[in-house]
Amino acid sequence: MERHADPALTLRAGASSDIEQCVALWVDACAVRDGRSIGGIADRARPKFDRSIGWIVASSGEQIDGFVLATAPGSGMPTDPPDAAVVGLLAVQPSQQARGLGRTLLQAIGRHLSDAGYRQAVLHALLDNHTALGLYRSEGWTAVGDEYEHSLLKRPLRTFSRDLMQDGLGGTVGD
């Protein structure tokens, strides 16, 4: 286990008993981001948990305050680098946003993937999500390729890549 700057929060590996709470958190965070609930969000997220190669949960007691999930290379977009792990889900409880938890989770999954031998990771970000884009860029993620349209949301999306061998990555999140 790893501690976050908030001593009440603990980072730990996700477990099957966390799936529904994480999916609900993902749906809530997306609704806040998008200004409304959009059908199909949960159905697209749920299968990713079964394909996880890294899943980290930030919790305070029984409450999940945030999580990040990565899947194996080849599980993202056809244009992703073939050897890049895919950070497919990152969400923080809306009441906990802007407190550094998203950054902590993003750094933790980077360390986990690096320790597992992955040299590169990608994520796909909506170009109108300026807060997330600022976080990704400040953590060394760079835009690659052309923008394209999100198949469900019909909004511009872009792939971002991160070299996991850069300084600052290393260490693991325990079970």
From TrEMBL:
<dbReference type="InterPro" id="IPR000182">
    <property type="entry name" value="GNAT_dom"/>
</dbReference>
<dbReference type="InterPro" id="IPR016181">
    <property type="entry name" value="Acyl_CoA_acyltransferase"/>
</dbReference>
<keyword id="KW-0808">Transferase</keyword>
<protein>
    <recommendedName>
        <fullName>N-acetyltransferase domain-containing protein</fullName>
    </recommendedName>
</protein>
<feature type="domain" description="N-acetyltransferase">
    <location>
        <begin position="9"/>
        <end position="158"/>
    </location>
</feature>
<dbReference type="InterPro" id="IPR050832">
    <property type="entry name" value="Bact_Acetyltransf"/>
</dbReference>
<keyword id="KW-0012">Acyltransferase</keyword>
<dbReference type="Pfam" id="PF00583">
    <property type="entry name" value="Acetyltransf_1"/>
</dbReference>
<dbReference type="GO" id="GO:0016747">
    <property type="term" value="F:acyltransferase activity, transferring groups other than amino-acyl groups"/>
</dbReference>
